[in-house]
Amino acid sequence: MSAPPISLLEDRPRRRFLNGWALAVLICFSLLNFLGFAATFSALGVTLPSMVGDQGWSWTQAGLGFTLLGVASASSSFLPALLIRKFGIRTPLILGAFVLAGGLLALSLVTSVELFLIGTILCGVGFQLIAMIPGTHVLSAMFKRRSLVFGLYMTSGSLGGVAGPWIVISVMGSFDQNWRMVWIVLALAVFITGLICAAIVGRGNDTHNRNIAADPSPIDEWGFDVRSALRKPQFWVICTAYLSQLLVLSCVASMSVAHLTETGTVAAVAAGMLSLEAAVQVVARLFGGAIGELVNRKLLLMIGLGSMTVGLWTLSTAESTTELLLYALMTGTGIGLTALSSTLLLLEWFGKKHNLELFSIMCTLVAISAVNALIGGAIRDATGSFTLAYQLFGSFPALVLIATLLTRRPRRPEENQ
């Protein structure tokens, strides 16, 4: 019996080496996603009451900062794609570490509303530079089983949302309720972690690219060009699905506790339901990632959209324990599955070749979700209740669900020739 070819024997440790780099890259991006969410959207929501009380701001001024954080993040979605195409993956991660840490330090030095707003804008831009767009681009290239990898990666962001309040409480408890120390600690964590992760991700990505270049087998990397994709209604259906989960996420986070306490629910229970909803998001993303290679992703998306609809409509009139649990379970499941499946469906239907640009365009639309708090507040002021607001917001994923049901996968560019 002849010995196996030497090339095969040599290739085994090489593959283990490459798999080790891929795992290191996944861990780094997950850590950046965790810190990004924890240090921005999650931490600001908990720290803001102390900042408002200390600085004597109105809640309109405070709310403007939160809105600018979201708008800055969404409107800078083009920047990571541009930097990656021109300079490689290290550049947006290093720049993002500097910008996000700078924004957090600006928040720690706040003595005026103007500096507060500048800080939130910097945080929004910095978050976008280190978060979803670079992560999905590199991970989709390095892994073939993308559902599980994306599930793990997106779960890290949800965990950051859960951990953010506890980080704030722990730091303030250790520094005599000094909210400025929260931003200093988070700035140091983001800066050091960002630079370390940029080095590891850059090395891992270079190693992967060299391996691809040395592999004589052809690479099946197809994809719609950006202009053709923008002309497809399927692209906009996926975009609105991704937007819907952000609308639901932000309106639940910003208004659900106030709404439930106004309808007779104890504040601690209302906050507990919000925490339960965030925990269910984590489970839904993990579960969706685990079964994403086996189950039709369009079906997963439809389940997510339907769950969000039921969850918000239940929340609009929820009073009993059963209704509160149903709202938390359905909303958390819907947000988790919709975020994951819409990202995967974009890759599946439109290909990897120009996914970086297409996903950046999709993320830019997130800016629209920043207006829902203003709409919800206006409805509350006009009607005396958030009920109509939640019924209105719950109708949006319902409409997207109908559109998704009627949408078929677009034909590949070569199939049209």
Describe the model.
The protein has 417 residues and is mainly alpha-helical. 82% of the residues lie in helices and 0% in strands. It has 16 helices and no strands. The chain has helices spanning 6-55, 59-75, 78-87, 90-108, 113-130, 132-142, 146-174, 179-214, 226-230, 233-262, 267-291, 297-317, 321-350, 355-364, 372-383, 387-405. Helix 12 (297-317) packs antiparallel against helix 16. The longest helix is centred in the N-terminal third of the chain and has 50 residues, at 6-55. The N and C termini lie far apart (50 Å). Residues 1-18 have low confidence and may be disordered.
Overall morphology: globular
Distance between the termini: 50 Å
* Share in β-strands: under 5%
Order of helices and strands: HHHHHHHHHHHHHHHH
Would you summarize the structure shown here?
It contains 16 helices and no strands.
Descriptive keywords:
single chain; 417 residues; mainly alpha; disordered N terminus
Write the layout of secondary structure elements.
Elements: H1 6-55, H2 59-75, H3 78-87, H4 90-108, H5 113-130, H6 132-142, H7 146-174, H8 179-214, H9 226-230, H10 233-262, H11 267-291, H12 297-317, H13 321-350, H14 355-364, H15 372-383, H16 387-405
Helix pairs in contact: 1-2, 1-5, 1-6, 1-7, 1-8, 2-5, 4-5, 4-8, 6-7, 6-14, 7-8, 7-11, 7-13, 10-11, 10-12, 10-13, 10-16, 11-13, 12-13, 12-16, 15-16
